[in-house]
Amino acid sequence: MMKLLSSFHLPCPMRFGLALAAAALSAVSLLIVDGSEKARAQEESPKTGDAVQERVYSGPQPGEEIKPFKVYQIQDGDSQELEIIFEADDRIRLICFVHRLSDDDRILFGLGLVDFYALRHDDLTSHIVLLSDDRETMLKMLQGWSRGNLFPKSLLGVSVDGAEGPGAYGLNRNVAMTVLVAKGNKVVKNLVFNAPNGYDLETIMKAVATTLGKEQPTLTEVQQELRAERQRQAEERLKASPVFQLAPNEQLGRIMFGMVNARGNPSQNAQRLSQQLTEWAGDSQERQSELQKYCQAVLAGDFSLNRYSRAALQELAED
Question: Which of 4, 120, 151, 318 is the most buried (most CB within 10 A)?
Answer without folding.
Answer: 151
